[in-house]
Prior knowledge:
It contains 25 helices and 21 strands.
Amino acid sequence: MAKPYELEISRLEETFRWACAADISGLEGAVKHAGLSPLAAVGSGGSLTAAQVLVALHQSYTGKPGIVQTPLEAVDTVFEAAVSQWLLTAGGTNVDINAAARSLIEREHRQIAVLCGRANSPITAICERHPFVDLMVFPPPAGKDGFLATNSLLGFSTLLARAYVSVFDHLASWDDVSDVVAPLLDASSKPIRVWRDSVDALWQRPTTIVLYGPATKVGATDIESKFTEAALGNIQLADYRNFAHGRHHWLAKRGDQTAVLALVAEEDRELATKTLKLIPAEVPIARLDVPGTGPAALLGSLISALHLTGWAGQARDIDPGQPGVPEFGRKLYHLKLPKRAPRHTAPQLNAAAAAAIRRKTGESVHLLQGKNTLDFWRQAHRDFIDRLEKTTFAAVVLDYDGTVVDTRERFHPARPDIAGELQRIADSDGILAIATGRGVSVRNDLRTVLPSAAWHRVVVGYYNGAMIGWLADDAQPDGTDVVCPELKDLAVALAESHELAGSARQTNRRYQITLEPIRFMAENRLWDIAHQVVLQGGYTEAVITRSSHSIDIVASGVSKKNVVRHVQDLVGGRDILTIGDRGRWPGNDYALLSTPMGLSVDEVSVDPCNCWNLAEPGQRGIAVTRMYLGALDSAEKGLRFRKGALQ
Length: 647
């Protein structure tokens, strides 16, 4: 049974305190990733307002566009894979959001993020089958919402605001935001009493025009949502200037049935005052002044919508938390999204093959078919799989971050399922090798998950192949911070760069310089700055590559391919399988996966002969690594893929 709305409002303070104290490290990481690209936020009902909050924050703090979509729109609209896709849901149970999640995951956007208020829900189960999804579960202390989103909405909005402030505004203090917002949650506070007295005039009329500015759009949107869902009244929305473009004419014809509610943030004060003075005197006006700026005003406008809904319910004798759901409404809720015609398959081409070709070409198979190039790529795909299935591999060489461990978990050892596959390879007749841009941390982590008896059968290439040794060798790697002569002057030039100072962490090793952003910086920006320093200084002995979390600059001749050559010497030149995640130039696995038998778990090169990603649609990263390794069986003097395992 739904909760009384008054009970839900009484717990807003508790929810806000919880959201101000919750651990948001995972959310911060997801927001930082989202900051690299445009964003689409998907939600239904009250979560659609949370999606509005996310887009408002994203556009304000990153300068990149965002769009709010319902699940129906998200399933129907195809954006390029670079667009981050976020799904917001309080319970994770409704059929629409789950259908959208499945559809978007299959499209393999660079980021899929799900913000959910309930663990062990249908949407979390979907995400757990796709480890690359950023799944963030925050169950609010007030539990499940009633008929309307209240505590989950305030909780999500506060968490998102905290994350964006933390990642993108290192000079701001969240305490300053909290100090402005907290008094608005106390029903007995002076600001709330002033608001309540002001809105009494609204209940005389069935229709309310809600005027808002950029900072208060979220509150206006939620008022429309709640008044419609609880049948509290007719709402029309307009920002202060769009109201002047014809929408004011409603008052000329139906002013006797209409009131005006103005949400006024500090930045709107002058425009709002001038606008309201021109409203006909017979039209009731309520003005809610929302304190603060930026996220404080955004949250304040949302809180005003939550309070206003309760006051409207009391005035019109409707409990917004328990309005009653008609039988036809229940049937409407459980309708499924319409099925769209498949866009990614072609005649005689299964979904996995179509996905592999799309990753290679960046184009749908239907478009390739129209250009008469699909047959070429279909044959290239078949030829590559045929070579893999006919080959006995004497060794498997894997990248580490993004391949053996998820990039978000790179400070932890490999998961047990991946570690088990690594041990199985090490125990076979083939050699297991790791090629990584890192140093001793990888040695320590591998020793944690592999038994000591296997250490002498595992080769590790550290610092992108600059140093190579057995896992059992305590002498490798050499972690000295004294760089080699080829990189010495460059290391000084990078350290003296004004653009890098304070924004990137520089780590020097003998044959490698690593740059990692300290706070948010677009990946391309760090890449461009490093290149500029290299080009201006004429450092011809340096090679720059990009990993999932850093820029690695190595001395000429240093490459992950050195690990492949080293292992080939050990196995007498026999065939070697290589697996990595950044196979597209300038990714740091480009050289590793340019070998004849290179498999990617994520990005691929444009070469039709190698570096394919053969994962099922909607999979990437360590789940694909597990699939590849699990498909390898022990064979005489090596390992072979099971027939049909890669089809």
